[in-house]
Structures are given as C-alpha cells and as structure tokens.
Amino acid sequence: MEKGNNKFIAVAYKLYSVADGKETLIEEAPADRPFVFITGFGITLDAFENGVEDLPKGELFTLNIESDEAYGERLDERVLDLDKEIFTINGHFDHENIYKDAVVPLQNEDGNRFMGRVLDITDDIVKMDLNHPLAGLDLLFKGEIVENREATNEEVQQMLNHISGEGGCGGCGCDHDHQGEGCGCGHDHHGKEGEHGHGCGCSHH
Q1: What is the pLDDT of residue 142?
Q2: How far is CA 148 from the centre of its chain?
Q3: What reaction is this protein's catalytic activity (predicted)?
Q4: CA 128 to CA 121: how far, in whole Å?
C-alpha cells in the first residue's frame, strides 16, 4: 500500500514494561475489544504505528520500544506544587476526586488538557505529577493484527471531526478508556500527552 494512505488498524495486544530483563504486564487489549486507530493522525506513538501499519490481518507481532521513543525520561520539573484553592468548590476542597494516587484531568492556561497524578496533599498544596505514567519505561508490545485495511472517507472524516472538536482521539473506535486518558488504551501510549507546556495555570475539571 502507499505510505500516504490512512489505514484502519485494530490490534489485540499485551503491554509490558521492561526493566532489568524483567517483563511486567501493564495492560491488555483483548481481541474482542482491540485498540483501534487510523494511521497518519499522530494518535499512536510513531514507533508503534510504524511497527504495525504494514502487517497483515492475523499477523503476530512483538515490538520493543525504548523509553526515548515512547514517553521519554521522567522529569522532575513536571512535578508541581499546586494551590489547593484550584481544587476547592464553593469553599470546600474536592476530597471525593482529589486524593493520593488519584488521576485527575487538568487544563493549563493555554487550554491544553492532560492528566496528573496526586502525589501528596498538605494544608495548602496539592503535589501533582504531570509525567506520563509510562515515562522512563521501556515498553514491550506482544499482539496480533485484528484488522488492517484502508480507512474509509467516513472514518477519516470522523477522526478529523473529533480531533478538531475535542482535541483528542475519542472517535477512533477505542472503547477501553479505562484510565480516562487519550485514545482508550489505558495509558495513551499512542498520543502525545505530556508534551504540552505545563505552565502552572492549571485548572481542575
């Protein structure tokens, strides 16, 4: 196929992190609920998309993606002390949603949305980690191609609509979204989350 064509790809896989030769299962997209995406939109990591886009339906694959091609290193400057007032509604702190280890949707002053994980809460500060959950990790995908075909004009248009209208990729047919991040694959190993400038004009939604 021509490289320029948008392809509709569905993959079933298990995702592992690799450290010191040890594989740790992070998540799974089973064959009955595969990860679905259209190439050419930057939804997936480039290394992931390049690794599967030319594989035929039914092909088994193993992809090793080192951290610098995945989510990069873990950066201390992405750990912020945010004013507790940000998470106060009608004078009351949002204890229901803001607690240690909670994953919280945030928005900076430029309107970029991203996820943060609560590390600690003090009397006046919420310490938030804006690093991607998979930052600093080497990734290993083991899976199978469930579908690989040229995307229809309608599918491409749906993708364009979602990207322009929502700034995300929720229309790609993914239905996992168990982390509420990116394109329904749990940790959004496929999107460019975490690359926004995290000026401290964060707001809680």
Answers
A1: 97
A2: 21
A3: [protein]-peptidylproline (omega=180) = [protein]-peptidylproline (omega=0)
A4: 9
Percentage helix, strand, coil for the chain under 3-state DSSP, each rounded to 5: 15, 35, 50
Query: What is the third-level CATH fold of 7-72+135-166?
Result: Chitinase A; domain 3 (3.10.50)
Q: Give the C-alpha separation, 187 to 133, whole Å.
A: 7
Domain range annotation of the chain: 7-72+135-166, 76-130
Tokens found for residue 189 = 């190993």
- Please tell me the predicted confidence (pLDDT) of residue 187: 37
Domain 76-130 CATH class label: mainly beta
pLDDT at 165: 67
Q: Is residue 200's pLDDT more than 60? A: no
Token digits of residue 184? 């329904």
The model's pTM is: 0.66
In this model, does residue 191 exceed pLDDT 90? no
Give the whole-angstrom CA distance, residue 104 versus residue 115.
6
Q: Which residue has the higher pLDDT, 189 or 94?
A: 94
